Amino acid sequence: MIPAAPEDLTPARVAQFLNTRTLGKSIRCLEETTSTSDEVHRDALNGAPHGHVVTAESQTAGRGRKGRRWLAPRGVNLSFSILLRPNLAAEQVPSLTLCAAVGCREALLELGADSGALRIKWPNDLNHQGRKLAGILSEMTLGKGRSVNHAVIGIGMNVNLDTALLPPPLNEEAVSLRNILGHEVDRALLLARLLFHLENAFEAGFSRVEEKYREGSSTLGQRVRAMMENETIEGLAEDLTPRGALLIRRDDGGLTEVQAGDVVHLR
Ligand code: BTN
Prior knowledge:
12 strands; 267 residues; 27% helix; 7-stranded mixed β-sheet; binds biotin; 5-stranded antiparallel β-sheet
């Protein structure tokens, strides 16, 4: 169990709890920035190592998937980004985000979240009883050919937020770790445990965490609507490809592979 102590998020406090090989060994904890992912992209250009992390108490231009904004009140949540220098082709990067979802879920289960309630909505939202607990955004810059120069995995998690204070409809749509566990959480300890499980998931790769992803998925087996760039389809979320794309059995019997997009679960 995590002690109920909302302490400062500082490099020294994170280091106290950290037992990773590389993730978070290099870390900057900021009071405010535009986006922690902007900071990590900049640090990457200046030679920051694989596993470098930036956190912020407040982001003035936090971003989510599909160009959406990511808003979080100052000081109560976790907003952080991780630099990965993977040896990957661009097509493989989406599967990193799925690994990130597995890593976050493993850390949260270890800290006492209920496995039946804490589910991954494809591709990488972490929901608790259908309410959003965390979101993950992966970005990359390409090098020569289609190889990835570096990838930045940005994670926003509702931690000690009292969601009852959010305006509707957010108070109904969001949930925090404090809501789930019934007490506040030390964010430095939480970050260290997240980094530990994220490192394991990234190193394993999607093929070796796929089973855990499937176990935690709330999307597989559901009727869904998928909104892609050029079309919207409905059908049964039947399976995943080896790279983590979603296979949807359309009502006309055909199969569509959704590599990127938003899904809505239908009843
Ligand atoms: C989503 O669910 O749409 C993804 C949200 C990702 C938010 C995090 S917070 C830390 C990092 N910095 C950002 O600007 N975005 C990500």
